[in-house]
Design goal:
- The protein has 509 residues and is an alpha/beta fold.
- The protein has two domains: 278 residues, Aldehyde Dehydrogenase, Chain A, domain 1 (3-Layer(aba) Sandwich), CATH 3.40.605.10; 187 residues, Aldehyde Dehydrogenase, Chain A, domain 2 (3-Layer(aba) Sandwich).
- The protein is 37% helix and 21% strand.
- It is built from 14 helices and 24 strands.
- The strands form six sheets. A seven-stranded mixed β-sheet has the order 3-2-10-9-8-11-12, with helices on both faces. It has a seven-stranded mixed β-sheet with strand order 15-16-17-14-13-19-20, with helices on both faces.
- Helix 3 packs antiparallel against helix 4, helix 7 runs parallel beside helix 8 and helix 9 crosses helix 10.
- The longest helix has 30 residues.
- The chain binds nicotinamide-adenine-dinucleotide.
- Nicotinamide-adenine-dinucleotide (NAD) binds next to helix 7 and helix 8.
């Protein structure tokens, strides 16, 4: 990525990492962002100190008082402008996502497209923040419920979707009348600075208060400031289940609201009637795309014994064709892991699979030599395992695909699919209506996302996104996910000269 391209996104070699709108400041330690694609330094971002953080929150509080009084459709107009700017910058922002995070350029562009899509969704939503009208049991009374802005939304995000997750939250929160304070992953700080520059310019051009959108930069300590802060009524946190448990308990201590989007352990059930061509494409993209670093990556394939060998062979053939290398080169299918710590986790997971009795079907290794100088490239692995293995029960954020055999009825496969602690995404490959409906029924998948004849990864923004159990229960993006960003109020109006009490209670004076 050239310095001209970085400049087009407002990035310098050294960037302050705290901002309220277009005012940038920071006094903390420097974070160096190196590209996992080639190990080279992209730039530095200065962390926020507690003082910087407090300044950001004070500005956000002030800005919210003004922002909540701007009519929702007018707030939608600002989000429309954000979507337009993202359309313009899609190639260069997509490239930064690819270069700083390591996903393919196509996926980087796809991530920016998701930002554009959620902006479009939010613009329409800004005229549809509907409550209900309710018939009162009392004569001459009218009841309704309405939704008011909540205040400051704290957004904590993971490295693997370094721009889209912010926008899923910010676009909805902004039309809902909230202001946003974002702490991005310390592994992808430049993506956050670039997004903040984009929205800050829009706020400035529209003469709006600076603190409507802010960022703070740093590691988990800055995240902890957000989760303990009583000035922040909603904390939306995306990341590992370990992090989510800590954030959930901290926010619950102060009876705040949290929206949690945590780890997955996603499976595709492959039934005897499955279309195997579709199955192989869905499974390989799900397992290898983003080098297995999507929350919705396919981790487990639960295959009926009657077709097990056939699927195994087709997968091994497909894996032989996967090209690994620079994600900005479109001929490569798979780029690097985020850093060398992630490579160590991958290697340890391979050891654990073997120690528990699993079998690696192809060689899992860290790649060395020309093109792999960053030390972050690995080969994608297929392993035969049993569902109950400790390692299979955990999400390993790497391209490792587990093959699990089932026999008998679909109920047995569903029990395996549900037999993990996470509950994000799930899929079934079948051409049998009964199997498909059972999978989607109350006796089927226990996940937040259940697909038929589609893989586990790659959701559309129109649906609510999130998962059950240790995935955290939160829902973001489409459908009615917006409601978590607002406070609901029930209103009853008496337009008579009498005061009848509810439930027929008599109280005569
Ligand atoms: P991580 O948990 O290490 O970090 C995520 C964010 O949380 C970072 O910004 C980090 O600084 C912050 N953080 C860490 N500990 C914290 C604490 N105690 N208090 C407050 N903030 C804290 O996750 P990661 O390695 O960046 O991302 C990978 C994980 O994210 C995977 O488990 C993946 O499944 C999950 N993820 C989930 C979704 C989803 O929508 N369900 C989406 C993307 C990623």
């Amino acid at each position: 990525m050239t310095s001209k391209e970085l400049k087009a996104l407002g990035l310098e070699n050294e960037n302050p990492g705290s901002s309220t709108g277009s005012k940038w400041f920071s006094k903390g330690a420097w974070i160096t962002s190196n590209s996992p694609t080639n190990g080279k330094e992209i730039g530095k971002v200065q962390s926020s100190t507690r003082k910087d953080y407090d300044k950001v929150i004070q500005e956000a509080e002030k800005a919210q008082l003004a922002w909540r009084n701007i009519p929702a459709p007018k707030r939608g107009e600002i989000v429309r402008q954000l979507g337009d700017k993202l359309r313009e910058l899609k190639p260069v922002l997509g490239k930064l996502v690819s270069y700083e995070m390591g996903k393919s350029y196509q996926e980087g562009m796809g991530e920016v497209q998701e930002m554009i899509d959620i902006c479009d969704f939010a613009v329409g939503l800004s005229r549809q923040l509907y409550g209900n009208t309710i018939h009162s049991e009392r004569p001459g009374h009218r009841m309704y419920d309405q939704y008011h802005p909540l205040g400051i939304v704290g957004i904590i995000t993971a490295f693997n979707f370094p721009v889209a997750v912010w926008s899923w939250n910010a676009a909805l929160a902004l039309v809902c009348g909230d202001v946003v304070v974002w702490k991005a992953s310390e592994k992808t700080p430049l993506c956050a600075v670039a997004c903040q520059k984009i929205i800050a310019d829009i706020l400035k051009a529209n003469k709006l208060p600076e603190g409507i959108s802010s960022i703070v930069t740093g590691d988990k300590e800055v995240g902890e400031w957000i989760s303990t802060d009583t000035r922040i009524p909603l904390v939306s946190a995306t990341g590992s289940t370990r992090m989510g448990k800590l954030v959930a308990s901290t926010v619950a201590q102060r009876l705040g609201r949290s929206l949690l989007e945590l780890g997955g352990n996603n499976a595709i059930i492959v039934t005897p009637s499955a279309d195997l061509k579709m199955t192989i494409i869905g499974a390989v993209f799900g397992a290898v795309g983003t080098a297995g670093q999507r929350c919705t990556s396919t981790r487990r394939l639960i295959i009926h014994e009657s077709i097990y060998e056939q699927v195994k062979k087709a997968l091994l053939d497909a894996y032989k064709q996967i090209k690994i290398g620079d994600p900005l080169d479109s001929k490569n299918h798979m780029g690097p892991l985020i850093d060398t710590d992630a490579v160590q986790n991958y290697l340890q997971a391979l050891d654990k699979i073997k120690a528990e009795g699993g079998k690696l079907l192809n060689k899992g290794e860290q790649l060395k030599g020309k093109g792999y100088e960053s030390g972050c490239y690995v080969t994608p692995v297929i392993a035969e395992v049993e569902n109950h293995y400790e390692i299979v029960q955990h999400e390993t954020f790497a391209p490792i695909l587990y093959l699990i055999k089932y026999s008998g009825d679909l109920e047995n496969a569903i029990a395996l699919q549900n037999g993990v602690r996470q509950g994000l995404s799930s899929a079934i490959m079948t051409n049998n209506l009964r199997e498909s409906e059972l999978f989607l029924s109350q006796n089927g998948s226990d996940c937040g996302i259940a697909n038929v004849n589609i893989g586990t990864s790659g959701a559309e923004i129109g649906g609510a996104f999130g998962g059950e159990k240790e995935t955290g229960g939160g829902r973001e993006s489409g459908s009615d996910a917006w409601k978590v960003y607002m406070r609901r109020q029930t209103n009853t109006i008496n337009y008579t000269a009498n005061l009848p009490l509810a439930q027929g209670i008599k109280f005569d004076l």
